[in-house]
Amino acid sequence: MKILKLFVFLVLILFIGGTIYFASKDGNYDIKESRVIKAPSSLLYTTINNYKTWEHWGPWKKEDPTMSFIYSENTSGVGGSYSWDGDFPGKMTTTAVEENKSVHQDLHLVTPGGERDSNVYWNFTPLEDGSTEVSWRTQGKHTLLDKVYFTFAGMDFDSDMRSMYASGLEGLENHVLDAMKMYHITVQGITEHGGGFFIYKTTSASGNTISATMGENYGAIVNYMTRAGINPIGMPFTIYNEMDQDGGVIMSNAIPIQNKVTITNDSTLLCGYMPRTKTFQVTLKGNYTYLGEAWNQAMQHLNEKGLKQTEQKPFEIYTNDPGEFLNPADWVTEIYIPIE
């Protein structure tokens, strides 16, 4: 009997001592992983801010194939949330956002050892080359039971979480880059363009300088129109006066206006007029880098149908503003080839 009492006493001492030991261990955790992704911060922010994208890039379903996602009515912005079923059911809610810069979230998990809560922070830092440094950070506090389990199970919680976050950031990069690469070319066929007056600037450019030259030309046109109080009545377009096989062009970058104007104090800008024109139209939805393929398809269909170009030069219209459409896959360009 004395031996039994002694044994119980020793067990009690070990239990109390263990409890004191584990309770005294620091249970706070602060885990952060970062990755540089070649995508604009605005697009990455929009992706993270909308929970409907998370199942496409998150690392969790790789570890738990039974996981299913449940979306609330609001899945983005402050108050947006989603939840999931699986080995560890949970819910995530957005608590604060700063557009294109940061997203803060509350994470709630239900584990066999009880419920857990932590804070999640995303930050997006634009870099000079157009890439973005994305950081994913979680802060929280382990329960006593967590500390006991991690110790006896030999689990390195911080290391496992960092590995999972690194996998998630890689998945995020692949998801965003794949989304940016999507494009579609549509052949509309014979159409008619209404024409009208426009202010333009004509320059030459090689294949690798066309975009930069366009930017400079449109900047000059917009500056002049602003000073002169002239409002555009449509989207910018480019007339291709000459195109060679090496990718060089002589082009006129233009912005449509309501009436004819006489341009003073700037000898590089002119006012032109395009008559109503019968055209063959092809539309690209996607990054401008696919314009070469769109033009090739346009010329191929033109030749297959036996249609002949007129002396009027072909042109393309940029029907939406890349500054308002974050994903290049959403950019729309209309190609018009004047025909007889």
Description:
It is a single chain. The protein is α+β, with helices and mostly antiparallel strands and 340 residues long. The protein has eight helices and 15 strands. Strands 8-13-15-14-10-11-9-12 form an eight-stranded antiparallel β-sheet. It has a seven-stranded antiparallel β-sheet with strand order 1-7-6-5-4-3-2. A hairpin with a 4-residue loop joins strand 3 (81-85) and strand 4. The longest helix has 25 residues, at 157-181. The radius of gyration is 30 Å and the shape is elongated.
Brief characterization of the structure:
32% of the residues lie in helices and 36% in strands. With 340 residues, it is α+β, with helices and mostly antiparallel strands. About 7% of the residues have low confidence.
